[in-house]
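Blinded run. Sample ID left blank on purpose so nobody reads anything into the name before looking at the predicted structure. Input follows.
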Amino acid sequence: MKKLKVLLWLPVPPLLYWAFKDIRFRELLTTLSRLTVIQIVVLLVVNLVFVSIITLRWAVILRGLGSPVGILKLFSYRLAGFSVSYLTPGPQFGGEPLQLYLANKRSNVGYDLGSASIVLDKTFELLGNFTFLGLATLAILPLGLLSSSSLRLAIPLPSLLVAAPVAYLTAVFFGVRPLSLILARLPARLLSRPWFQRLQPLIGNSESRIVTYCRRRGRTVLQVLVFFVLVWAVSLVEMWLILHFLGVSADLQQTMFVLAGVKFAFLLPFPGALGALELTQVTVFELLGYAGETALGLVLYMRARDLLFAAAGLVLALSASRQSKKISL
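Blinded prediction complete.
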């Protein structure tokens, strides 16, 4: 695992080089100087609204599972989990065990129920991400920005990606437990290991709760749709505001294109999409006819914002760790 994490860092330097090689840093500073303090405050408030919405989604799921938790507590758990996901290699995963731990220790959410809530939350999130990528691909087709070879890849790819969360939700709608079935078919050598024997009942109990939750199919589908609209409406508003403040007059299609590039970069297994985000945005902005300096101005603002929230999450995680040690003593 450690070797894999090291390997994931290897593409980062060349990606950063290709993103920055033609950048005029004086122009980049000029672009960033367009952001005023009031504009930055507005953008941070909008991002807080975004985080509050995805936290509310988790809260709604927990309530539906029979374990309601206050949204402010869940907000702190999610922020702590975000710090781990953002600062470690992987496509925005990794902080979920910390979320689960904090929900258990500080809000008495059982591990099986907490795992079920996080699996459902992540399923909703992935379904929303891949659906948006598909819609964004269709929206930018009239712009004529993609070559025929790119189109052959861009059109079916989101459909393939969205198939996994759709298949999982469809299965549990009909009482099937896909994860449990997969685990039961693993090699006997793995199944006999003590750590796996402790893990398997947890997964089985969690998936049973997911199946129970999804028996009310209408409610589940409605939640997916409502939170999809809320999450992506706020995301598009935030991106449009950033572009506007940086001097880019983007319409809805162009804003979707830029946001799709961001989401695609964060699906790649690099820590915080480092290098991938920079190169993706430079490419997207050049296709739209804007300077690479503007693209990197956008990226640097996003980096500063995300590092601010990640730092807040680390403080919350360390505070929770200290409190747990005091309680154990």
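Unblinding after everyone has recorded impressions. The chain has a mean pLDDT of 85.
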